[in-house]
Design a protein that fits this description.
With about 200 residues, this protein is α+β, with helices and mostly antiparallel strands. Helix content is about 55%, strand content about 10%.
């Protein structure tokens, strides 16, 4: 059985545009997924990247065009300038980690609900009530945002170190063995790889 390690950030618009395609691809190939939220700003700092707000104006302008085009291609609702971005990614990341440890719900739905809250619903994903609503929507106990904080705080930095060790430098990154697929626009390649054609 194939296994996918999924490195992502709960504030990444490109992770948002992946929607639930990863989960569909995994189901198609009977693959398992380990959800590994991480601090994307720390990943940039460690691997030579530049935070979006510090980039050259040309890169900032191109990013805005790319995001707008992605919204049109996917048909997903999207706010280019959400009120609560950037915000603290740790609370929502801890919740995902706690939910994965607890089991019983739909992790893909949880991740997408958190991302949708930021990029479509203009909510603050650092807010406990917003996180609780996302947990509940995905079939988890909304209290995990509190009870899972210690576990989340332990695993969250480990996810970053693991991602760097695996060769990741951006999100979303999908890792299958020694093969990395960076970006939601590489999901077709991941699908082909799992099918044995790439």
């Amino acid at each position: 059985m194939a296994h996918i390690d999924y490195y992502f950030a709960t504030l990444s618009p490109f992770t948002y545009f992946a929607g639930t395609r990863l989960e569909e691809i995994a189901a198609k190939h009977d693959a398992t997924i380990a959800y590994k939220p991480l601090d994307i700003l720390a990943l940039f700092a460690r691997t030579g990247g530049t935070p979006p707000g510090d980039r050259h104006p040309n890169r900032i302008a191109y990013r805005a065009q790319e995001l707008t085009r992605n919204a049109k291609k996917t048909g997903m609702p999207f706010n280019l300038r959400p009120t609560h971005w950037p915000t603290n990614m740790a609370p929502s990341s801890y919740a995902v980690i706690a939910a994965q440890e607890a089991g019983g719900g739909d992790l893909g739905k949880l991740v997408h609900a958190i991302l949708r809250s930021c990029w479509a619903d203009d909510k603050d994903v650092a807010d406990d009530a917003v996180i609780g609503d996302c947990l509940e929507e995905a079939g988890f106990d909304r209290g995990l945002s509190f009870t899972g904080m210690l576990t989340g705080a332990e695993i969250y930095p480990r996810n970053l170190e693991e991602a760097i060790d695996r060769g990741a430098f951006g999100v979303p990154t999908y890792a299958v063995g020694d093969q990395l697929f960076w970006g939601q626009d590489r999901l077709d390649d991941l699908d082909a790889h799992l099918a044995g054609t790439l």
